[in-house]
Amino acid sequence: MIHVFDSTIKKPIHILLPGEYHAAKDTILSTIVGSCFVVCLYDAVNKIGGMGHCLLPVLSSIQMKKEDIYTYNINFMEHIIGQMVKLGADRKNFIVKIFGGTGTSYNRQYTNDFIEEFCKQENMNLEAIDIGGNYRRKLYFFCNTGKVHRYLVEANDSVSEFIKMEKEFIDKVLADKVQYGNVILFE
Predict the structure, then answer these.
(1) Residue 15, by phi and psi: left (phi above 0), alpha (psi -120 to 50) or beta?
(2) Model pTM above 0.70
(3) Which of 10, 24, 33, 165 has the highest Cβ tally under 10 A?
(4) What pLDDT digit, counting tens, does each position of 8-49 carry?
(5) DSSP 8-class letter at 144
(6) Alpha-carbon radius of gyration of the chain
(7) What is the mean pLDDT for each group of 10 consecutive residues in the chain (187 residues)?
(8) Who's near 33: CB < 8 A, 6+ residues apart?
């Protein structure tokens, strides 16, 4: 994560790299997302927000089962939620906004299916879905208000390094994935 202070708006900005998450009260979180997806969670009662740059399974030479990627993303979401709860957020107040899934229709469908199922299981309000298409998204998430400023970005050199990091993150996660064995119950 990169920390900067924006002198124009007089607030700190935390720039999340692919695979990172952060929660805060009076901070702006920012990232650029391409084929992966970004989730923004907001507790409107306690004015606490969290953002995570999550993983999609199909952009790597190493393939992963849909169930494994669901498990990875559920754990990732729980880390964001846990960080927010530590700051005083209450899960029952969460509002969810989702961005990314650029590229293939599979990316869009996977992102939509995953986030809708997650929100349903967790009883969270899914307020905004902005996925698919051919443009990357540059996001600024205001943790104290829950507002997201989204800018569509064409493929160019100014964001290509960020997208390269996203691809490297995907490859690393898929290469390092934990192999699950049989469950043994003890009495």
Answers:
(1) beta
(2) yes
(3) 33
(4) 778 889 999 888 999 999 899 999 888 788 999 999 999 999
(5) T
(6) 16
(7) 79 87 94 89 97 70 65 88 97 94 75 88 94 88 96 68 61 55 46
(8) 53, 99, 100, 102, 136, 137, 139, 166
Residue type, 114: F
Q: Residue 70 — left, alpha, or beta (φ > 0 → left; ψ -120 to 50 → alpha)?
A: alpha
**Cβ atoms within 10 Å of 161's Cβ, excluding its own:** 10
Q: Distance between CA 96 and CA 39 in Å, rounded? A: 7
Report whether 41 contacts 98 (CB < 8 A): no
Nearest by Cα to 52 from 88, 89, 85, 14: 14
What is the CATH code of the structural domain delimited by 2-175?
A: 3.30.1330.200
* Residue 35: φ, ψ to 5°: -80, -20
